Amino acid sequence: MPLLQRIQQQFHDSVQAKQQALDVMAAPIERAVRLMTQCLQSGGKVMACGNGGSAADSQHFAAELLNRFEKERPPLAAIALTTDTSTLTSIANDYRFEDVFAKQIQALGRSGDVLLAISTSGNSLNVIEAIHVAHARGIRVVALTGRGGGKMNALLAADDLHLCVPVERTARIQEVHLLTIHCLCDGIDALILGEIQ
Ligand SMILES: O=C(CO)[C@@H](O)[C@H](O)[C@H](O)[C@H](O)COP(=O)(O)O
Ligand SMILES: [Zn+2]
């Protein structure tokens, strides 16, 4: 396939992935917006974690809540658990890489907080450990996954939310994750600013 055609195919596949996701993800995203907004308005915070591209997504989301998205509003309590290299390397070096997020949640997480757990496969062990600790501390989980949600699917509690992209390819799942993150930011802003109920 010529290069130009490959690029056109990528665009086409991305559009198709988003169309497929629209049908199944809009309603759970609405629930996640309401859950996170209620958490933030009650003095809780949103923590986010994931690996690789999902670490970048965690940081992207936390920055848009803490600083701003599209509108002026007060800063919101959000933190990515993927950023402090001293914390991450010491936990991985002294204990296990699986514990890099879980230990931060043990230290910082409070009942009423929300964890955004991002994994395209649903099988990353450090994200799975983070979910276990979140449950133990009364922290509800919004899981952002793909490919059926892997091991995370079976792990979620009844009052957690699962936003699962119904496609197989990691890049396409990540593209829908970014759209989802922007839907979360837009919805949280609209609720907090009283534009919708
Ligand atoms: O961005 C990409 C691939 O597009 C990679 O960096 C990818 O995020 C990494 O391989 C991650 O370790 C994959 O983890 P996960 O999504 O399965 O939890
Ligand atoms: Zn990527």
TrEMBL record:
The record's keywords, sorted A to Z, are: Carbohydrate metabolism, Cytoplasm, Isomerase, Metal-binding, Zinc
Q: Which cofactor does it need?
A: Zn(2+)
UniProt cross-references to Pfam families, sorted A to Z: SIS_2
One Gene Ontology molecular-function label = D-sedoheptulose 7-phosphate isomerase activity
Positions that bind Zn(2+): 60, 64, 174, 182
**Domain of life assignment:** Bacteria
Task: Tell whether Cytoplasm is among the UniProt keywords.
Answer: yes
Quickly give the catalysed reaction: 2 D-sedoheptulose 7-phosphate = D-glycero-alpha-D-manno-heptose 7-phosphate + D-glycero-beta-D-manno-heptose 7-phosphate
Q: In which pathway does it act?
A: Carbohydrate biosynthesis; D-glycero-D-manno-heptose 7-phosphate biosynthesis; D-glycero-alpha-D-manno-heptose 7-phosphate and D-glycero-beta-D-manno-heptose 7-phosphate from sedoheptulose 7-phosphate: step 1/1
List each copy of the SIS domain by range: 36-197
Q: How is the cofactor bound?
A: Binds 1 zinc ion per subunit.
Q: Where in the cell is it found?
A: Cytoplasm
Enumerate the SUPFAM superfamilies for this protein: SIS domain
Q: Which GO terms describe its cellular component?
A: cytoplasm
The reply to whether Zinc figures as a keyword in the UniProt entry is yes
Q: Which residues bind substrate?
A: 51-53, 64, 93-94, 119-121, 124, 174
Gene Ontology biological process terms in this record: carbohydrate metabolic process; D-glycero-D-manno-heptose 7-phosphate biosynthetic process
Quaternary structure and interacting proteins, as annotated: Homotetramer.
User: What else does UniProt say about it?
Assistant: The reaction produces a racemic mixture of D-glycero-alpha-D-manno-heptose 7-phosphate and D-glycero-beta-D-manno-heptose 7-phosphate.
Q: Name the PANTHER family for this protein.
A: DNAA INITIATOR-ASSOCIATING PROTEIN DIAA, SEDOHEPTULOSE 7-PHOSPHATE ISOMERASE / DNAA INITIATOR-ASSOCIATING FACTOR FOR REPLICATION INITIATION
Q: What does this protein do?
A: Catalyzes the isomerization of sedoheptulose 7-phosphate in D-glycero-D-manno-heptose 7-phosphate.
Q: Which family does it belong to?
A: Belongs to the SIS family. GmhA subfamily.
> What is the protein named?
Phosphoheptose isomerase
Q: Lineage from the top down?
A: Bacteria, Pseudomonadati, Pseudomonadota, Betaproteobacteria, Nitrosomonadales
Gene that this polypeptide is encoded by: gmhA
